């Protein structure tokens, strides 16, 4: 549990030393009421303690008389970037203090906390800016998905279209589509939470704050559109792949049909002369076999010419 103190620069001109604080809590396990920062121990609701401990909790925003709670979801670095997963990060706003709760392995906010501790520069000018910086870090973690997802999409495109590549990673592909669908829904929820918080919070926003949070919303919207576009591209690739396989199958069937069309009349002639009748024409003549062979060859060549002209093969 680490605390940073900031001075609201907007009030310095009036010689008001108004401080605001950020307490960052890294969770290694389940946190209890006794382990909470002192400012929260007597006011936080039990349900919200459960929400903080729930790493799969969906994004929410709630405001009560004592405090406000926001739960966002950050990218979980333990999982493959192709099938992105997230885990919760909780923000509690109480008086002039922001308290964040996240898993100890999630370094999204911890790095910024340590940066301000060490450098003491670039610190936020007010409470609203502090919130924007931290939420923007979460948004930036989503933006980092763009390049690897696009690169993987190109790899799948090349593999699915390449006739010499027997693609069989369908389980990975379906899992990626499912993860992207879930990611899109998650981003929609986070945008709704952000909009609700901006509407209902007790904090006030100047024009600069409005621009900053609009930009943050655009970050989430871009990733949402990207996830939707990649899912759509994957569906298109599936359709193209199966159309290609179907076309190849049709060509094989067409070749088999062409060969059957060539040999069927030849088999008919052979079957006729293979019947065990004594008085059949050409059976006992010296040139009978040669004549029938020439007729069969000519018929086969004629059929080949006709089928080639019709572009059956």
Overall description:
Helix 8 runs antiparallel to helix 9. With 313 residues, the chain is an alpha+beta fold. It is built from nine helices and six strands; from the N terminus they run E-H-E-H-H-E-E-E-E-H-H-H-H-H-H. It has two domains: 2-245, Methane Monooxygenase Hydroxylase, Chain G, domain 1 (Up-down Bundle), CATH 1.20.58.340; 252-309, Methane Monooxygenase Hydroxylase, Chain G, domain 1. The protein has helices at 9-12, 38-41, 46-53, 108-119, 127-143, 146-161, 170-200, 207-273, 288-309, and strands at 2-7, 19-27, 60-63, 68-75, 86-94, 97-103.
CATH fold label of the largest domain: Methane Monooxygenase Hydroxylase, Chain G, domain 1
- Biggest sheet statistics: 6 strands, mixed
Q: What's the number of helices?
A: 9
Average of per-residue pLDDT values: 81
Strand arrangement, major sheet = 1-2-6-5-4-3
Shape: rod-shaped
Strand content: 5-15%
Low-confidence stretches: 8-17
Q: How helix-rich are the residues, as a percent range?
A: 55-70%
Radius of gyration: 36 Å
Number of domains: 2
Q: What's the level 1 CATH class of the largest domain?
A: Mainly Alpha
Annotation, overall tally of beta strands:
6
Distance between the termini: 74 Å
Quickly give the CATH architecture of the largest domain.
Answer: Up-down Bundle
Blueprint of the fold:
Elements: E1 2-7, H1 9-12, E2 19-27, H2 38-41, H3 46-53, E3 60-63, E4 68-75, E5 86-94, E6 97-103, H4 108-119, H5 127-143, H6 146-161, H7 170-200, H8 207-273, H9 288-309
Parallel strand pairs: 2-6
Antiparallel strand pairs: 1-2, 3-4, 4-5, 5-6
Helix pairs in contact: 5-8, 6-8, 7-8, 8-9
